[in-house]
Amino acid sequence: MRRRQFIAGLGGATLAGVSGFAGAQTTSVPGITDREIRMGQTLPLSGPAANFSTVGKAVLSWFESVNAEGGVNGRKLTLIQLDDAFSAAKTVEQSRRLVEREQVAFICAPLGTPTNIAVRGYYNAQKVPQLFIGSGGSTWADDIAKYPWSLGWQPLNTDEGRTFAKHILQTRPDAKIAVLYQNDDAGKDVVRGLKSGLGPAAKQIVREESHELTDPTVDSQVVTMQASGADVLVAWGSPRATIQTLRKAHDVGWKPTIYINQNSSSVPTVLTPAGLDKATGVISAAFLKDPADANWRSDRNVEAWFAFMDKFNAGAAKDYNAVYGTSIAQTVVQMLKQCGNDLTRENMVRQTRRLDLELPMLLPGLRIKTSEADPHPIRTLRLQRFDGASWKLLNT
């Protein structure tokens, strides 16, 4: 019953404009039959970013639950997942396999900024939808006119940087700021958003340090930033790098106000391994409820979430990345429902511009609402502070 309640939480979606696109069945589209919708996904199942594989497992779990209820318009959802090990060259290879050999209808929730940028041109040339990309790269919004077949999902990294900047200006206007960022498009976007949000106060950034995803440690960068005299640290990186940052800052006695990125804010998988005492006071931006946070235990949608996960993916019930993957999968399912029987690739893209959806695990006040003018699904974040046991939303 609770799993049904979780599905019912999607009732905030509207289907305006759907009837105009529910035409004849489109079984000539690759990956579409009367009984199946075949999708593809590239993601790191191995390598330095393999911890994000939880996202893929959650997507599969939600599709499994939908199939148990009869699928979408009588069609079973099939997802072909291929490992790219977070290597752009491997993503290119696996993407071609999905389109040319596996004959998928579209690409669903592929993970990574540099990896998806590497294949965006290919998908757009082939007119294969690359939908709800698991990346906050600003390029998914900035370049959508050039690449209309590619669409992000989550708030942009520049949005995250600007959110941090606004809070710093409100609470620490004289701050000396250090920035530690992953040396890729995603990390650079955060820095760009931070500087844009700070405006003239960007001169208060006293140290910038980057790190590679494959670096074994970020200890030397933390020591260098401490020596800069910074009293605010914006740290954007993988869960592993975030764990190391929090540990090293604590161990060397450095106590700046620390901001970390929302994809590395999970209590059980990041803050607990780092040490809850070392993470106390850390601030993060968020747009999804964290199932590991006791504050949400009485929330009916979170209760339904646990019931759903108990049946389909119990091992990741408290993992924030599982919420993330499930929420993307729910968005995919809504898009397909709106397509009706017109499952042409063109209509899939068209329906991504007509979403009006309140997902069960979005934070209060947030909603997916897209249009031709603004097709990016989510742009707003809320700030939260970790009190040593759970995250507390800030009223900012």
Spatial strand sequence of the major β-sheet:
7-6-8-9-10-13-14
CATH superfamily of the largest domain: Response regulator
User: Which whole number gives the mean pLDDT?
Assistant: 91
Write down the CATH class of the largest domain: Alpha Beta
Quickly count the helices: 14
Largest sheet: 7 strands, mixed
Portion in beta strands: 15-25%
> Given the C-alpha coordinates, what overall shape results?
globular
Helix content: 40-55%
Kindly give the count of domains. Answer: 2
H/E series: HEHEHEHEHEHEHEHEHEHHEHHHEEEE
CATH topology of the largest domain: Rossmann fold
CATH architecture label of the largest domain:
3-Layer(aba) Sandwich
| Rounded Rg | 21 Å
